[in-house]
Specification:
Blueprint (H helix, E strand, L loop, with lengths): L4 H8 L14 H8 L5 E3 L5 H10 L7 E3 L3 H5 L8 H11 L9 E6 L2 E6 L1 H11 L4 E6 L15 E3 L1 E8 L2 E7 L14 H5 L21 H5 L16 E5 L1 E4 L18 E3 L5 H8 L3 E6 L2 E3 L7 E2 L2 E2 L3 H5 L5 E4 L4 E4 L9 H5 L5 E3 L4 H17 L6 E6 L2 H14 L10 E6 L7 H9 L4 E6 L5 H20 L7 E5 L3 H13 L17 H14 L10 E3 L7 E5 L9 H5 L5 E4 L2 E6 L9 H5 L5 E8 L8 E5 L2 E3 L6 E4 H11 L8 H5 L4 H10 L10
Parallel strand pairs: 1-2, 4-5, 4-10, 5-6, 10-11, 19-20, 19-21, 21-22
Antiparallel strand pairs: 3-12, 7-8, 8-9, 13-18, 14-15, 16-17, 23-27, 24-27, 25-26, 26-28, 29-30
Helix pairs in contact: 1-5, 5-12, 13-16, 14-17
């Protein structure tokens, strides 16, 4: 592939030596580099393992080594001769420091495996892993073939009630509705011979619908005592396992039907041997990063037992997020979390944020990619975000196809960037990338993403695109590309390369912050300042319903200024005035969670998704105000005119509030007590 080491070195501010066989004849250069103590970047991922072994065998090797692919991502492409700016960007990003470590989640597995399925299939699977795992079989489904005569594993049977948990902590609950205790059964087959209805199969399950109660099987099993018909009504049993292998077809599964099942749970159809290989390795102690951070004070999920935003719960494919209304928060189970980051992407407030790698780390990488690309003379950069698994595999397959001349390859202006998961970045980082010079931000999705992830990403992109179009930037800046094959990806990238978009004249230089709302403000402020036609900007941009920005409209004729919405607002967008009966609103703070509308007893509040461009969006404005109500006895204000009038109207027909009792509702708390005790016609407790 064409490489200009001098030009690349000039952009990266170092001297680069071009190697053609660094992993073979020129391995000495690599060994010398890893002895230097400086960080070493190797522009080859194919021989990562070989370089690792070479570094271990090199005496005095102390340098940390990183790897970056510049071959399939640009060197093997029809545009390879124009790809130097992209290659420089990829090399520069590879030199960035690793993200700071975060707390970890620990799993402990002793290798206790539960295999669920027909007994003959379960025993065959158990035979492949039984040398390293402690296997228990739970027979489920048709088992006409029966199990092996030799009983090598404990066998359970019955109706499965629940299966929940994760690696090292799966709790199984079942009812032993089979009269035959499979653990006591000696498999002598005497019961099969004795049963006149042929209601017993070789899986030693009794078909109770066919059984007419002769109980000949019980008499035949007197020695072993394995058959008891009163066992059907016994209490549920529970047991804990470390791993679960489910052989049942998908439609028969009572639990874990979600897109991302918990770690330690595997479905197997008997074909993919990789599943069993993974099972064999899951004995011991394992750690994974705690991928999220949660700040309850920012959460817009619940206030006063009312639910507002539930975006994170709705999108989680692992069912790791649940509502806790009583504590006004959500609960995230770190053992079930698979680190997709979709919850952080759709969170409007930033209460949930992606921890590893955090948004500032990803933002620094994007800024480095775009800045180096521009410094090397590149134009119209397209940032291609893809997963580290199937997405990266597709990009590499495309590069190899381009090398063989069967595909165009990754275009020169398309910069691939691998993510742990494609759903882990959202509105704040996308708009920051556009503000920093990206002509397009493209998210490559394959068949590995959950359907709700695609809907969530598209909704967020629609919001971002509406903002950019409202500001006057022409073209489609954010796109979701669906590809399951090299041909799909090649065709999509060709279309993207030909697209024309309009971006800010001066790229932004701000750093992505840990706080989502702060980053959004920085990005939007820069995009507004660099808008193509500032004089033509509208006062507000209408946005889709999923927008984290918007206005609140209050029906003044219905609002009584009870201010329950103020106490419910998690973002301090709705505020009272301590000096006057007013409901005020700061539009910049509003996250459109809907808690105010849900809480309002008068149904007087409506949400309007939009982005206000007026400077006043950061200042409180009055939504409703009224006159204070003064006590009819002492004149002290103690409520609002509308609230007291509404109360009087509603209670005027109640028999408890007639005459003087109704008049007391017009008094403050002190005067009400005085009037009650001074009244001559009131019955007192002491007189009863």
């Amino acid at each position: 592939m064409p490489l200009d080491s001098r030009a690349l070195g000039a952009v990266l501010h170092e001297e680069l030596t071009l190697h053609s066989t660094l992993c073979r004849r020129e391995a000495g250069a690599f060994q010398q580099a890893v002895r230097s103590g400086d960080e070493v970047v190797v522009a080859c991922t194919q021989e990562r393992r070989l370089f690792g072994e070479l570094a271990e065998q090199t005496e005095g090797a102390v340098s940390p080594v990183r790897f970056v692919n510049i071959r399939e991502t640009g060197g093997w492409s029809q545009d390879a001769r124009d790809a130097s700016p992209k290659l420089a960007a990829l090399l520069a990003a590879a030199r960035l420091p690793e993200p700071e470590p975060v707390p970890t989640v620990t799993f402990r597995s002793a290798g206790r495996l539960l295999v669920i399925g027909p007994v003959h299939a379960a025993e065959r699977a158990a035979a492949l892993v039984g040398d390293v795992l402690d296997v228990t079989v739970f027979t489920q489904g048709p088992g006409a073939a029966g199990g092996a005569q030799e009983r090598r594993y404990p066998v359970l049977g019955g109706r499965l009630l629940s299966l929940k948990g994760w690696l090292g902590a799966f709790d199984v609950e079942w009812v032993a509705d089979n009269p035959i205790d499979l653990d006591l059964c000696t498999r002598c087959n005497a019961c099969l011979s004795a049963c006149p209805e042929n209601a017993i199969g070789l899986d030693y399950q009794i078909d109770l619908a066919a059984c007419t109660g002769h109980r000949a099987c019980v008499k035949a099993c007197q020695v072993a005592g394995a058959i008891q018909f009163d066992r059907v009504s016994a209490a549920p049993r529970t047991e804990r396992f470390d791993l679960v292998l489910d052989l049942r077809p998908g439609e028969a599964m009572p639990t874990f039907a979600q897109h991302a099942p918990p770690q330690g749970y595997f479905r197997w159809g008997g074909q993919d041997a990789a599943v069993l290989l993974r099972l064999r390795d899951l004995v011991g102690e394992f750690e994974k990063p705690r991928f999220f951070t949660y700040r309850q004070k920012l959460c817009a999920h619940s206030r006063n037992q009312e639910v507002g935003c539930s975006a994170c719960i709705d999108i989680c494919s692992a069912e790791a997020v649940r509502s806790d209304k009583s504590r006004q928060q959500i609960q995230v189970n770190p053992h079930l979390c698979v680190g997709c980051g979709a919850c952080t992407t759709v969170c409007p407030t930033g209460a949930l944020s992606y921890a590893y790698p955090a948004a500032p780390d990803q933002g620094a990488k994007i800024r480095t990619l775009l800045g180096t690309y521009a410094a090397a003379g590149g134009g119209r950069a397209t940032l291609l975000l893809h997963s580290q698994e199937r997405g990266q595999q597709l990009v590499e397959e495309l590069g190899r196809a381009a090398r063989l001349g069967t595909a165009h390859g990754v275009p020169a202006q398309v910069i691939p960037m691998a993510l742990w998961h494609t759903a882990s970045l959202g509105l704040d980082v996308w708009l920051s990338a556009v503000a920093q010079g990206a002509a397009q931000v493209v998210v490559l999705v394959t068949a590995e993403e959950a359907p709700q992830y695609l809907d969530g990403l598209q909704a967020q992109m629609d919001v971002a695109q509406a903002i950019l179009q409202g500001l006057g930037y022409a073209g489609r800046h954010l796109q979701l590309v669906r590809a399951t094959s090299v041909a799909d990806l090649d065709a999509a990238l060709k279309v993207l390369a030909a697209a024309r978009t309009q971006g800010p004249a001066v790229p932004a230089r701000f750093a992505v912050a840990a706080d989502k709302r702060s980053t959004l403000e920085l990005a939007i402020d820069h995009l507004v300042a660099q808008a193509p036609a500032p004089a033509a900007l509208p006062p507000a941009i209408a946005l889709p319903a999923a927008s984290p920005f918007g206005d609140v409209v209050v029906d003044a004729s219905r609002c009584t200024l009870c201010l329950s919405c103020v106490s419910a607002c998690p973002a301090s967008a709705l505020q009272d005035n301590p000096n006057a009966p007013q409901l005020r609103f700061v539009e910049k703070n509003c996250v459109q969670c809907g808690l105010c509308a849900t809480t309002c007893p008068e149904d007087a509040i409506q949400l309007v998704p939009r982005l206000s461009l007026a400077p006043e969006r950061a200042q409180p404005r009055v939504l409703n105000e009224t006159q204070p109500w003064g006590c009819v006895r002492c004149g002290k204000p103690f409520g609002t005119l509308k609230a007291i009038e509404a109360m009087l109207t509603r209670l005027s027909g109640h028999p408890m509030f007639q005459g003087e009792a109704l008049e007391r509702l017009k008094m403050c708390g002190d005067c009400r007590v005085i009037d009650l005790y001074s009244a001559q016609n009131e019955s007192k407790v002491t007189q009863l």
